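Quick one:
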Amino acid sequence: MIMIAPPAEGRDFLAAHPETRFIDIIFTGLSGTARGKRIRAHELAALYAGGRPLPVSILVADVTGQDCFDTGLVWENGDSDRLARPAPGTLVPTAPGHAAVITSLFEPDGPVCDIDCRAVLDRAVAGITALGLTPVVACELEFYLLARAPGEPLRPAMPGGGTPTTHGTYGLEELDDAGPFLADLWAAADAAGLPLETAISEYAPGQMELTLKHRADPLRVADDVVLYKRLVKQVARRHGLLASFMAKPFADLAGNGLHLHVSINDAAGHNIFASPPGQPSPPLLHALGGLKAALAESFAIFAPNANSYRRFRAGSFAPVAASWGHDNRTTSLRVTAGPPGSRHIEHRIAGADANPYLALAALLAGVAHGLAGRLDPGPPVVGDGYAAAAAHDPGAAPLPGNWFAAVDALAGGQILKAALGEQLVTMFASVKRTEQERYMAVVPPLDLEWYLANA
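Output:
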């Protein structure tokens, strides 16, 4: 059940942070972009007492913020308001004098909106808890630090104006170069209570990954991701940089992934995936089977935008088939190494541009489907998962090859409709089809370069 924070939470926050002048009300619609309003501190009590109106069309705005008329949630109801209500424990400081709070959208007569993204994830969690189990999840997001001089294209950059000319994956010098930015980001995360941990210099110049600690509360994990992305962008801006979670900003450099980690605890708090290396427990195998079964129809959620599909290339560390393997980063579903009690699945499909609420919801829907049906994932991929996909290995089933096929697979699937609600699937597909029409209506420079003189 989606809870509403009590008024005392707002009063206590201002008493503890009297310097607060402005609060951002953050709401995440189906597109995954955080939007909202900025209120003054004296308005906070009213937000906690009765909510703040937002137009219902914001639920189904496209990635650019434009209305999606085919959803039936714009003109048909006069673009009427719903109430943004604060989520417990999410009111946090984000910068000197500034704070932010996560909200869900509620109907005027009380219940949460059926396609509110936090409500969708809550339904997916209920699919696991109905089995007497508790999901434990974590998210890892990659992003680029970028600079843009007037008249020049975006390029990887570091604080202080430096442009990376060499790069070493997991390089310490790169972390030194990004040191001022990272120090400020960790300080902001600590102030906001976000469990932000290890920093890694990733596969490309200017590309970073920081880990958010796992929680046995997927809804709070997704809230953490939204607040974390907001902090990354704010801190980068203060350093004169742009932080981007775009899936594939550069054709010749690595894409940005959102790796989802999941294990499942029983009623006693024991990890049911616990097993010796290379000897997966039956529940772990069943979860893998469910995730594989749901991958095709979930793909549009994990890769929601046109640019998302530029990540999926052989040898890119982005998987290209529905496959699983033991400690194998060329597969979609990696069963991690480590002590038996730490065994879990790393789901490697999603891009950093994915909506974290919906991505985790699709992940848990697949896990619940596999556990309930005791599904068999088939054999693991051993070695090169890209070669297995190219050779049509039975353990590496094909995935939708493009944005249009992925949205069709989502609309025609049954697993997510049963777990997350048919209205959610219908509305998400409608938003994406509107985006597809708008995207295809633009004539890009490459069309002119290839076809203007040659057609």
